[in-house]
Amino acid sequence: MTAGAGRAMIALTLCAGLAACGGTQGNRNQNVDPDIARGQSRSTIWDLFGNRSDPNTTVGVNKYLWNASLEVLNFLPVQSVDPFTGVIVTGYGTPPGGGRSYRATIQISDPALDARSLKLALQGAGGSAVAPDTVRAVEDAILTRARQLRIRDGRL
């Protein structure tokens, strides 16, 4: 093979490879994000997690669970509250008629009045563990009070 034929073969291979990149005239948007194909674009990564229907909507917190938590644990001093994430953090306090002090962290994670929406963590003085039965009893008291508040509002 001569040098000219070798160059011609390389040029032909490059042209054939370039022609293969052309593809067909079918649906050009088949591998494109459907939102972008419809003309909707995202400006940041955080827009993926946003509520497109109403930008003012935030995480929902059940108001009955929120108020019941504050009422049942009213003997504990509130250190911080965040109604947007549903977290209430208290300091140490002693329940009426009790001799041991506790502190609590409550998270209300859903707008539904449901036991799964309520998460309670109790801690004894000095960081000691609290019996699961005690935690369950406080959760039950909060859920019962929340149901009473809902019935009182007449929204049952």
From TrEMBL:
Protein name, UniProt field: DUF3576 domain-containing protein
Keyword Signal: yes
Keyword field contains Signal: yes
Signal peptide boundaries: 1-19
UniProtKB keywords: Plasmid, Signal
Pfam family, one: DUF3576
